[in-house]
Design a protein that fits this description.
Keywords: Cell membrane, Membrane, Transmembrane, Transmembrane helix. By secondary structure, this protein is α/β, with parallel strands linked by helices. The protein is built from 17 helices and eleven strands. It is globular and about 80 Å long. The termini are far apart.
């Protein structure tokens, strides 16, 4: 009952059975290793409490409970602690620390009891584990963690997702779905350079209310007025889990179709799969990914070659780049994109997928100086708005990045298509609650420096964005006869 969202008291029989079997398995396993019954009982309860506490911290920030694929990110807790540890409150850290101390003390104090048969002890551990599999398979689940937890309880759902998600059928379904993606065939009629930008936590924050300064989005508005398509984009992530949106855009696969793989699709990529990068690579493009962070984050260093990227410029490429807060500035990413385009062979177009990092939280760790808020919103200097001020400061830089890049392309003699989108809304639940809003959608535009047409507003899902981009790339119709942006500028 400590996990949020709270589960109903009366739960389905199968969920109660699965919970009991799971705790019993942990107890039997610890007892088989330590031969300490009291310690094993305390350790079992402590483990459930620990996972529940971590789940509560995640839910408080991201509105999603802890799920089994989050275990794959456990190593990143130590390699990139700034991205995770600040979301644990002092109270949770103290409680976790105290629990660990008590469990260790219990191990030292309790004397081991030598069992009569080691084989029977291990059999007692294997039996609940074996029984848990068929129970988990029969538990009715929606794969909406909130709904499932409210119905079945946190630990039963966590274990059911874990056991069902690791079944061979989950991997088979993943392979079948991605194999049917839209980027396995086709070639462009013309071959412009293509830039795809995933902007960290970007969305049109003016939807929060009139308090947000509209001039923060001046260059974004310019881009939309000149764009072929623009609108809101429905993404399969909220506040974090960038890789879900990233995978949907790059592969054109709808998140819910992936089954249990939807929570961390990169963990299920084991072979080459069709993507935007492989599509452009097959068409003769040089495919490069740019991300001013560590290549192993989300396992991109392993996954991106399987998606068809020939090169990956990570944090090492930005060793001397300027920072905005703790991360590489969006301005530096814009310069890296321009440098890639200028270095391109005239006979070989470029597909550049750039992921920004500047606006990545935790925002509450950033310093906000007195007076900074007034140029970005009219809500005042109260501490409750500091995270919003920090966020809008980075939005201002993202807007400048758009302007810098499109200004360069307007004078370039290379035909270029730019697709810009936000991966998810920022993790600002307390700000949104105080404003009485609940933003869900990000924003996008598809722009090019050749052809001309009235911009068309279309709201899309993340998995539809790649196909929309290819449609603009392949569309030559009347626009092919119209002047290049550099010609219009003269």
């Amino acid at each position: 009952m400590i996990a949020v969202p709270r589960a109903q008291l009366r739960r389905p029989l199968l969920s109660s059975v699965l919970h009991i079997l799971s705790v019993l398995f942990v107890f039997d396993l610890v007892f088989a290793v330590t031969s300490r019954s009291l310690f094993s009982a305390c350790a079992s309860l402590a483990l459930v409490g620990l996972v529940a506490a971590v789940s509560n911290a995640k839910y408080e920030s991201l509105r999603e409970p802890f799920v089994f694929t989050d275990l794959s990110l456990f190593s990143q807790l130590f390699s990139h602690p700034r991205l995770y540890l600040p979301f644990l409150s002092v109270g949770k850290v103290v409680a976790i620390g105290a629990g660990i101390v008590l469990v260790i003390a219990g191990f030292i104090v309790e004397r081991p009891v030598l069992p009569g048969s080691r084989a029977l002890v291990w059999l007692a551990a294997v039996l609940p584990f074996a029984l848990a599999f068929p129970v988990a398979a029969r538990l009715p689940l929606t794969l909406d963690p909130y709904v499932d937890q409210c119905r079945n309880g946190f630990f039963a759902v966590f274990v059911a997702y874990l056991l069902n998600g690791l079944r061979p059928a989950t991997f088979r379904r993943f392979r079948e779905v991605v194999a049917a993606g839209p980027f396995a065939t086709g070639k462009p009629i013309r071959c412009p350079d293509v830039i795809l930008i995933q902007s960290e936590s970007f969305f049109d924050a003016r939807r929060l209310g009139d308090e947000v300064a509209p001039e923060l989005f001046r260059r974004f508005d310019d881009a939309r007025r000149e764009a072929v398509w623009h609108g809101e984009i429905t993404v399969p992530a909220w506040g974090a889990n960038t890789m879900r949106t990233e995978f949907a855009v790059l592969t054109g696969t709808e998140s819910f179709s992936l089954g249990y793989a939807r929570f961390y699709p990169y963990a299920f990529v084991r072979n080459k799969i069709a993507s935007l990068a492989s599509w452009f690579g097959r068409c003769g493009y040089d495919t490069v990914a740019i991300h001013p962070y560590y290549a192993d984050f989300f396992g991109r260093d392993r996954v991106f070659p399987l998606l068809g990227f020939a090169r990956f410029l990570d944090i090492r490429h930005f060793a001397s780049a300027s920072r905005a807060g703790p991360y590489v500035a969006d301005a530096s990413v814009a310069e890296a994109i321009v440098a890639e385009l200028e270095a391109a062979d005239d006979d070989r177009p470029r597909f550049v997928f750039a992921m920004t990092m500047e606006n990545h939280g935790p925002l509450h760790l950033e310093q906000v100086l007195p007076g900074e808020s007034s140029s970005r919103h009219t809500l005042g200097e109260h501490a409750s708005w500091r995270d919003l001020t920090a966020y809008l400061r980075h939005i201002e830089n993202a807007d400048a990045m758009i302007g810098r890049l499109l200004d360069h392309l307007r004078t370039s003699d290379r035909e270029t298509v730019v697709c810009f989108y936000g991966d998810h809304v920022p993790a600002l639940p307390h700000v949104f609650e105080k404003l009485g809003v609940n933003p869900q959608h990000s924003d996008y535009f598809i722009w090019r420096n050749y052809g001309a047409d009235a911009p068309e507003r279309r709201n899309l899902a993340a998995e539809e964005l790649g196909a929309a981009l290819l449609r603009v790339v392949q569309d030559h119709g009347n626009r092919a006869e119209q002047p290049h942006a550099s010609e219009k500028a003269t």
